[in-house]
Write a structure and sequence with these properties.
Radius of gyration of chain A: 16 Å
Distance between the termini of chain A: 14 Å
Helix content of chain A: 25-40%
Largest interface: A-B, 42 and 42 residues
Strand content of chain A: 35-45%
Oligomer: homodimer
Shape of chain A: globular
Order of helices and strands of chain A: HEEEHEHEEEEHEHEE
Chain lengths: 189, 189
Amino acid sequence: MLEERIAREATVIAPDVLRVDMFLNHMIDTDLLGELGREFYRLFGGDAITKILTVEASGIAIACAAASYFRVPVLFAKKGRSNKTLDADVYSSEIHSFTKDVTTGISVARRFLPADDRVLVIDDFLAHGSAVRGLCDIIGQSGAALAGVGIAIEKGFQPGGAVLREQGIRLESLAIIESMDGGEIRFSR
Amino acid sequence: MLEERIAREATVIAPDVLRVDMFLNHMIDTDLLGELGREFYRLFGGDAITKILTVEASGIAIACAAASYFRVPVLFAKKGRSNKTLDADVYSSEIHSFTKDVTTGISVARRFLPADDRVLVIDDFLAHGSAVRGLCDIIGQSGAALAGVGIAIEKGFQPGGAVLREQGIRLESLAIIESMDGGEIRFSR
């Protein structure tokens, strides 16, 4: 279902940039999102997950869609400098967006990530893997267990997925794009 | 239910700043969010809504929770400079966060907000009303109809709500805080 939507509606707007803002990260199709959430639950539902961790902003919707099946809280890492509404007592890391060419600090209040949590990381995209690495770094700092990583769209031609799998992390990507050369999107099977 | 959660878990961390990051805008209780979404549907479900508009980041979760009842897409305005993954062809406005003391541009791709849309604006907080005004400004630019505004927590002692109601905009706030002087939270009834 996700591959069909990508094939039909997504646009390759630069050699490595896929625009899916018509259903995933600007306008959101909540029915589709519900199906993606259900699929993450099928994949990780037996894994005693106690929390879903993502990063603002575009990861929030898909993490919440998954969480409504798992019936666990979502925790989203905040970007940028801490502000008055966030605890001073945080775990922090850094992520680099190659699409936007910018490095951002991310942080999570310590009290929301106790060491006995069993965490599923969810995000919309996996490319170079910087966001997921930052989130895993924060989980490592907290002493919580990383149960796995669930991604909507993995760019299989970029190194993030391979690096995570080599580290023995359980990674489940709902659609893996093998190439999008010349604007033609091909999926791995 | 929301008032109970606020009374039990929220903290007043400055005379006008309420921290609800344990269930709404850092960690998210998706069961509670589902109930809030259902309540927005009870209030606006007969109003022929075709789209829900919010602004990243903390509005996304509650807008998606509502949209799953309305079965309409969520559109979230992006903050800051436009980037490679967003259309160049946007409606733009500005919002000011008094909590963070920062003014930010927001934008929405024109093609996702056609003039025949009937839009419900959803956000987590209403205080000075700057975010809602920015979203209403964008709806005005598009020619779409503003059906109403749904807010989780309104700070009734700040002017945003009164201004919107004076303009004849239908505003429904699920919890209205009348005062939080001395850290004691009182709701309007």
